[in-house]
């Protein structure tokens, strides 16, 4: 299995706020594998989540830590080149003998939504051409902006890692 397709495994020590992860997770999140294996603060992973997805991911993880319920969430991250990668994550918070949250473990894997994005781009492109040829300039402008957003791999303010 190619590392790009391999699921990433992690464990998060809540007391030290250190996430230990394998090289597959490093690859998904665009992080250095040596650093992920040695452990990084959770914020390093949260920084790689798409800004539109970050609040819901943070809330879902927090809810899982508080309740002890399993975590399941779909979201987008930026890989090393700054490309958006759709992922699905499963996790669970484990408690110590006193019942306090102590460790959180899970798995993250790439999902295949590229075909959906390609289809969306194709439909928007067709709608753009129709709006343009029909003289609907405001609609054409809006669709052109959407097409540019769909083609942009990374929003401003988030620098790709090299």
Automatic annotation (TrEMBL):
Transmembrane segments: none
UniProt KW keywords: Kinase, Phosphoprotein, Transferase
Reactions catalysed, as given in the entry: ATP + protein L-histidine = ADP + protein N-phospho-L-histidine
Pfam families linked: PAS_3
Presence of keyword Metal-binding: no
EC code(s) of this entry: 2.7.13.3
Record bears the keyword Nucleotide-binding: no
Cross-referenced PANTHER family: PAC DOMAIN-CONTAINING PROTEIN (PTHR43304:SF1), PHYTOCHROME-LIKE PROTEIN CPH1 (PTHR43304)
The protein's name in its UniProt record: histidine kinase
Species annotation: Rhizobium leguminosarum
């Amino acid at each position: 299995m190619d590392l790009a397709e391999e699921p990433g495994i992690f464990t998060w020590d809540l007391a030290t706020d250190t996430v230990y992860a394998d090289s597959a997770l490093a690859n998904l999140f665009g992080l250095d594998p040596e650093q992920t294996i040695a452990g990084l603060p959770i914020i390093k992973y949260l920084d790689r989540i798409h800004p539109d997805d970050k609040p819901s991911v943070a809330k879902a993880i927090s809810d899982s830590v508080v309740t002890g319920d399993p975590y399941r969430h779909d979201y987008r991250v930026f890989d090393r080149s700054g490309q958006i990668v759709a992922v699905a994550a499963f996790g669970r918070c484990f408690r110590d003998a006193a019942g306090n949250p102590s460790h959180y473990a899970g798995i993250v894997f790439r999902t295949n939504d590229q075909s959906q994005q390609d289809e969306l781009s194709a439909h928007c492109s067709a709608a753009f051409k129709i709006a343009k040829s029909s003289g609907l300039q405001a609609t054409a402008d809006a669709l052109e902006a959407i097409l540019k957003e769909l083609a942009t791999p990374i929003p401003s303010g988030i620098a790709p890692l090299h």
